[in-house]
Design a protein that fits this description.
The chain is mainly alpha-helical and 336 residues long. The protein has 2 domains: 210 residues, Rossmann fold; 97 residues, no CATH class. Helix content is 40%, strand content 5%. It has 12 helices and 5 strands. It has a 5-stranded parallel sheet, with helices on one face. Strand 1, helix 1 and strand 2 form a beta-alpha-beta unit. The chain is globular, with a radius of gyration of 21 Å.
């Protein structure tokens, strides 16, 4: 993460020596989701500047978050101001220098499709917008304070999302054994739950190509303005590069199914976990180049008619199951 070598970094658990007169710096990666919020507030309660230093609290804004999330982050800032005024905590909002449109409408710079419009990220590839909107701004923020630690909110029952575990990356929730449900209960206890979890399992860009039919249904049912924006980019993607937004359907086609009463089941295989992108980059599992999909096979004009693409579409269609209205209650699949 930082440019120091391992000898310059200290590991609390291993008891490495460090200069007690030197400031220990930490960057809290705050998304406004239940896990990172619970992590931040518990770190503040523990008030341990050695193990959990809080130098900066940074929210990397994709500019495609739900309005409710921005409001919730403002609410958390008010909570910090009211309960810890003497500590002067500020949630910094970081944004990419280049916009989504710069990349979406930009030209592919290499490979067989060089010169063609890039379009949306692929469901099966690292997301270039995670790199631009999350990884790069947070990496820059960490370097600006020469962060000894970077704190990421991954729960104890989600350790599959952790690859390596370098000394500079910390997962406090794992240290404490806190599960996702523990985080939800803790926020309820403090009286500051995030209402978005009434409709979503995961939070992220409302137009994310990895969101899945169930999340798009929740957006369609509860956030009409955001749904309109997502549909716009879906139509543009079809027009410009000839690809559906998700493998089996355009969002316009999904909307027709929703209007007919279709309630999709939840599938979580293709979640867009930007925390993963941040942690995997920081621990060296992926490099910046891995987010560059300009040479991906999906850009090849021949891919659209390939057996591989047809298999992907068929598998995606199998996940969209019709549930008769009379059976939704018994299956626990009511409107979400």
């Amino acid at each position: 993460m930082n440019e120091n070598n391992d000898d310059d970094c200290f590991n609390i658990e291993e008891g490495n020596d460090y200069d007690v007169g030197e400031e220990i710096t930490g960057l809290v990666c705050f998304s406004g989701g239940k896990d990172s919020t619970a992590m931040l507030l518990r770190m503040i309660e523990l008030d341990d500047p050695i193990k959990y230093p809080i130098t900066r609290i940074c929210f990397a804004d994709t500019t495609f978050e739900f309005p409710d999330l921005y409001a919730y982050i403002d609410h958390i800032q008010l909570y910090l101001d009211s309960n810890y005024p003497e500590r002067g905590f500020v949630i910094e909002k970081l944004q990419s220098k280049r916009t989504w449109d710069d990349w979406f409408y930009g030209e592919i710079t290499r490979g067989k499709a060089k010169g063609a419009i890039r379009g949306a990220p692929f469901t099966t590839q690292p997301c270039w917008w995670s790199r631009e909107a999350k990884v790069t701004p947070l990496e820059k923020a960490a370097k600006e304070i020469n962060a000894n630690f970077q704190f990421i909110g991954i729960a104890a029952d989600e350790t599959r999302r952790i690859s390596k575990n370098p000394k500079t990356i910390r997962y406090p929730l794992v240290d404490w054994g806190w599960t996702e449900q523990d985080c939800m209960a803790y926020l309820e206890h403090l009286g500051i739950p995030n209402s978005l979890y009434e409709n979503f399992n995961r939070l992220g860009c409302f137009h994310c190509i990895k969101a899945g039919p169930a999340d798009f249904h929740a957006t369609w049912a509860n956030h009409p303005e955001e749904w309109k924006i997502a549909k716009h980019y879906s139509a543009e993607n079809t027009r410009l590069v000839g690809r559906n937004w998700i493998p089996a359907y355009t969002l316009e086609e999904l909307e027709e199914l929703f209007e007919q009463g279709f309630v999709p089941k939840r599938h979580r295989e293709l979640e867009c976990n930007t925390c993963n992108a941040v942690s995997f980059f920081s621990d060296g599992t992926v490099e910046m180049e891995d987010f560059d999909t300009d040479e991906a096979i999906e850009h090849d004009p021949r891919f659209k008619d390939s057996s591989m693409n047809k298999t992907i579409i068929e598998e995606a269609k199998e996940k969209i199951e019709w549930v008769p209205p009379s059976q939704r209650a018994t299956k626990g699949l009511g409107w979400i």
